[in-house]
Amino acid sequence: MNVALFSQLSTLGSSVVLLFGIVLLCRRSLRAYIEAFRWQSLVQTALFVVVGHFGDAPELYVVAVVFFALKVVFIPRYLERLAKGVGAEPESQPYVNITSSLVIAALLVLLAYAVMRPLVLTSQLPTRGGLPLAMGLIFVGLFIVITRKKALTQVVGFLVLENGIALMAVLGTFGIPLIVELGVFLDVMMGFLVMQVFVYHIHGTFESIDVEQLNQLRH
Amino acid sequence: MNFILLLFPSLLSALLAYLVRPYRVIIGWANAGLSLVSLGAALAFAASILAGSEAPTFGPSELLRADSLSALLMVSVAAVATLALFFSPGLGRESQYDVAQLRRYHVFVNLFIFAMLLAVSANNVGIMWVAVEATTIFSAMVIPLALTKESVEASWKYIIISSVGITLAFVGTVLAYFDFVALSGRTDNALNWPVLLSAAPRLHPEVMRLAFVFLLVGFGTKAGIAPMHTWLPDAHSEAPSPLSAMMSGVLLAVALYAITRWKVVVDAALGPAFSNQLLLLLGLFSVLVAAFSLVIQRNYKRMLAYSSIEHTGLICIGLGLGPLGVFAAFLHLVCHTAAKSMLFLLSGEVLHRYRSTELERVSGLLKVMPWTGALFMGGVLAIVGLPPFGLFISEFALIRAGFATGRPGLMAAVLALLAVGFVALLRHANRMLYGAPPQGITMGEGGRWRMAPLFVSVSVLVVLGLTLPAPLEALLNQVVKVVAK
Known about the structure:
The structure holds 2 protein chains of 2 kinds.
Chain A: H1 3-25, H2 30-54, H3 59-86, H4 98-122, H5 131-147, H6 151-173, H7 178-206
Chain B: H1 2-19, H2 25-50, E1 57-58, E2 64-65, H3 68-87, H4 99-121, H5 125-142, H6 149-184, H7 193-199, H8 205-223, H9 232-238, H10 241-270, H11 273-295, H12 300-319, H13 322-354, H14 365-368, H15 370-383, H16 390-404, H17 408-433, H18 452-466, H19 470-483
Antiparallel strand pairs in B: 1-2
């Protein structure tokens, strides 16, 4: 088995996945958000197949299929429909502007390298090079949820965060036990469906999906 | 078999509520009846643990497991669920909610109960995570039952903050599994708690330290530990009262249970000092935030929610104080569950009568609804920690554990903050209970028998305040054996 190739492919794949996360930060329109998320999930599916092949973990093929169906087909399509339903308000003025967002994203990736250092040092895995990138994606996802103002972009941020964790699980352990993985997919799907119901609720009661107006409750 | 009796009734209830449309009151009562089966099964688990049986397991690769810690939580969850479901049929009276809303309520509340019971009976910590995440999803569906701006806002904050938080707990789970796999290779039951625990002494301390921080922040978000508590007062105050009772009474306890499970594993890898210090720090901070938030409250449901944060903080402090503290923490958890679920159910009655959650709109409660008022007074006296209620004993035990482990400074701070909370809560309660009732309000109780189940809660609190029943003491001792060796 070609370990060097495996190592390079996994690091390259993780970098591309992270890059799509950062691309989100410099976009404004909802359509661009959804598109970036779809591409990110697609690359990640390919990465799962690569790890499944080289890492001799056939369950990962199952995971890849479910992941593809859920995050490349189902969720982006639903998001687009949702965007049509509530009007695709662009992320015109996030709490942190785009230039600063990019700088902060770079710092977050550095932070991820610092945090994951002990793990990378203890690990013998050929995929260990990608672990800090996965953690970086988790931080970037968190950052998107915190700094974006539209309910829908927050949902996309949450999905990116989920992708980061799935990436870390696959790179670090070649997949968590299948039953847990399926439970996680179920949660992601239900969570997403509930969030989209709420996006409609927010749109219906506040006539916009800007979460800044959610300020009725104090103290 | 027992596991099926524990978990299946809530699923069946959800299915019944889903199938029967439009919603009828009989469904509400059927759900309440079925919840008694769950409660019976939970009590049977506790009894079998006390009879000395080893933790029973169930399912492929021992998916479910019930040791003393699980049994204690199962009984708490099932008891509060039963109480809440007996109150639920009353939600429909005087067309407070329409039939579609009531149907949705019964479907998701039962799924919510199922998820909580699954979380405390799962052997696999991955499944435990999945179940805790599911509790967020199901309960969030019920918060905006009547679509108001406030409830939509509360549920959005709840689902976003809790989902993100709980995702971080999954990072912690993956990190621990990563370390396990690096040592022992991939096995299917590696995430089973006993397997993880037996491997723990060989895990890398630096990885487990990182994992625990993620786990504590993640599950701590659901447990309402400050500074991750910001969603809690909104969600608990806007939810329909039986749901608030379950969220405050047992959902926080379930999240604390998850933290405890991981603390045991991490302690086996690192020694207890690391997790104890984190828990003491965050616990004290939670008590601090809650105490001062209580002072400025103008809304009685939010007041109760902040009091829950205070008690979560106390339980965290207990968990960080070694065996004596763990005993006190779980006794406190049981007492708080009994008291807070009762208070939230009562607050639903108050809200229904006064049509407001503002403290200044509620006065003369003792005259308007004598039984509700008296029970509310009892509940408030219990949560501020006065005798003869159980929380007095558990708080006393907690403070004693603090002094016994040589932390007088910390305990002095806790006592001072408890005093602040004490004064604030009594002042607010005073204003609700006495004074002249608002003009034009209907006098008398809502329903003759509605209050009856709550006398069980009061008796539990009083009994725990006067004596520690032998079975509970034995069970708590077993819990201490599991949690702090």
